[in-house]
Design a protein that fits this description.
374 residues; alpha+beta; Beta-lactamase; three-stranded antiparallel sheet; globular
């Protein structure tokens, strides 16, 4: 998406929301923060909505001493007169936040000694270029340099958004491309491969292993693995700009993303998941240390571990998929959790790899503001 098209989209959304009188529609609850601090946090969200052209956003900040800010801003569906305002219990596609859960499933298999972090990819995919040198660890931290989804997959999605993609075929198409330049290259294909490896090793479906190892232990009852067109209600409708107009992507498939990007979740569940991810709740201490072994990405201030990154003192992940933008962060130093969910995709016009999306920038700003309010 070009910058010009994104500007058109922002203007179009502003006009629609303004005419219908819902641009300021918001519901925010806070405890432990002063009036000025609440106003500052709300202003950060509104600024992101205005600059990114989001129909709406849902955010949460949870800091020590019971300081909490939870809010929903804007609308669930356009045109606004047909839909309700966004709610804090609405479900969103969280895209690459899925990778944090997939990595946890893999690391639990490593704990069970069914898989090795330094085991070569050639055990499972001997035909992949450099497979003997590519390890499970390198797939997890994106140092495999395996290419990401190819353009034909993206074009096919746009032509028939409701189609079902076979992960094996998506992997095969990606592997026809040149490998990424060293030292690091973000690639959805890494996590598609990891999902298939989970199935080979466990002899269960990836969906089953995700429920068993992540969703059930943490009681994430409003989180699901939906690699298709389904979105459980209540669901936020996502919007992307296509051929000069805003398109509702709530009915688009995410099967091309599968184990790399097909989780649907809520603000409350993601709060619980972010804490478990950052603290290693589902892993042994040694395995959590492995998860938090950072590698350089070539982008200053941005390091990657095993399905998790570190940026500006926060650890977590973000996700971007047509119509949805998400970020989950935790600050070990201030013990602050931040979740931000939006129903548009203002950073899709950025060249890959692009770690800093609008919700991630917002989550970082909210986290810093909460820390400064102590």
């Amino acid at each position: 998406m070009s910058s010009a098209n994104r500007t058109i989209a922002i203007v179009w959304l502003s006009l629609v929301l303004g005419v219908l009188g819902v641009a300021a529609s918001a519901s925010a609850a806070a405890t432990g923060f002063g009036a000025g601090e609440r106003a500052q946090l709300s202003a950060l969200v509104r600024k992101t909505i205005a600059e990114g052209g989001y129909p709406g956003m849902v955010v949460g900040v949870w800091a020590p001493h019971g300081r909490t800010f939870v809010g929903s801003f804007g609308v669930r569906e356009l045109p606004a007169g047909r839909g309700a305002p966004l709610g804090t219990r609405d479900r969103f596609r969280v895209a690459s936040v899925t990778k944090t859960m997939t990595a946890t499933v893999v690391l639990r298999l490593v704990q069970e000694r069914k898989l090795g972090l330094d085991e070569p990819l050639s055990r499972f995919y001997p035909g992949v270029l450099n497979a003997p040198e590519i390890t499970i660890r390198k797939l997890l931290n994106h140092t495999s340099l395996i290419p990401t989804l190819d353009q034909s997959t993206v074009e096919s999605l746009v032509r028939v958004p409701s189609q079902r993609f076979d992960p094996a075929e998506v992997i095969g198409a990606a592997l026809t491309q040149p490998f990424l330049p060293p030292p690091w290259g973000y690639s959805d294909t890494n996590y598609l491969l990891l999902g298939k490896i989970v199935e080979r090793v466990s002899r269960h479906s990836f969906a089953y292993e995700l429920r068993r190892d992540v969703l059930a232990p943490l009681h994430l009852r409003h989180t699901s693995f939906d690699p298709g067109t389904r979105m459980p209600a209540p669901a936020a409708h996502g919007y992307t700009l296509l051929n000069g107009r805003m398109v509702d992507t709530a009915g688009w498939t995410t099967s091309y993303g599968w184990a790399a990007g097909s989780v649907v979740s809520t603000l409350g569940d993601l709060r619980r998941w972010t804490l478990a991810l950052a603290r290693g709740t589902l892993l042994h201490a040694r395995m959590q240390r492995e998860r938090l072994r950072w590698v350089a990405t070539g982008q200053p201030g941005f390091e990657y571990g095993l399905g998790i990154f570190r940026i500006e003192g926060f650890i977590g992940h973000n996700g971007l998929i047509p119509g949805y933008d998400s970020a989950i962060l935790y600050s070990p130093s201030t013990r602050t959790t931040v979740v931000a969910l939006g129903n548009s995709d203002p950073a899709l016009d950025e060249p890959p790899p692009q770690p800093v999306t609008s919700t991630l920038e917002l989550a970082i700003a909210l986290g810093h503001a909460a820390a400064a309010a102590r």
